[in-house]
Amino acid sequence: MRHPILVILCAAGVVTLSACEKTIDKDAVDREFAGVNAIDGTGLNDVMLKAADPTEAAAYFQRANKIDPGRIDLMRGLAQSLVRAKRSQEATIAWGRVVDHEDATNEDRVALADALIRNNDWEKAEQVLTSIPPTHETYQRYRLEAMIADSHKDWKKADSFYETAVGLTTRPAPVLNNWGYSKLSRGEYASAEKMFYDTLRHDPSMFTAKNNLVLARGAQGNYTLPVMQMTQIERAELLHTLGLSAIKRGDVEIGKGLLRDAIETHPQHFDAASTALAALETSISN
């Protein structure tokens, strides 16, 4: 006799629960869960920062900041995503807000200086770096200090900062490439060439270092490509760079030959090299 009563009570409970469910605002629940997913999923935040498309990541953190404003981790996420998306002006504003937060760190100020340099605001970047205590010694800080010194053509200070930065990272290729380009801009071509070889030893895939290496060799009148890893398209582009270097030095016939090699090497139509060669031949004939 007890079983039917139990069934009736259970059924009554289900009816009561259903009635309660009907009073719940489904949209409100969806919004709450959307908020939880957006701002409390630390794993998702990391994925958005490191793996997601930068534009999508920026939109994600913009939404998260609206849901829970004032959270410095979300503010940092937005600023970092804007830097990745190459939206430099917006990134400087976002990092400025992070730095104004009561929980901001010196690393945040370094990130602001980096964003300012990307936005070509060198003077303000220098002011931000100067405001950071000298005891804050990091790879990123010294890399930026070196770039600031470069902008003032203070080569001695730049070399000191670059050397320190290289010693503070296990992945020195980007800073070595910057250092090499600094040497290139000073006219220290042999030293720059050595620096770019060093860069490629740490990161054989960095095309900017390959191109810079070719520029350094071309500036010394060396018009042969160095032995290194390169795709067919990269080879064509490097021949193009070398050809322009030769022409700039006055070795026009050598430059024309290198441009022809670039056109023949490229697997598709190489418009830049073709245009340069055509313009050169037209000017010579005139």
TrEMBL record:
<dbReference type="Pfam" id="PF13432">
    <property type="entry name" value="TPR_16"/>
</dbReference>
<dbReference type="InterPro" id="IPR011990">
    <property type="entry name" value="TPR-like_helical_dom_sf"/>
</dbReference>
<protein>
    <submittedName>
        <fullName>Flp pilus assembly protein TadD, contains TPR repeat</fullName>
    </submittedName>
</protein>
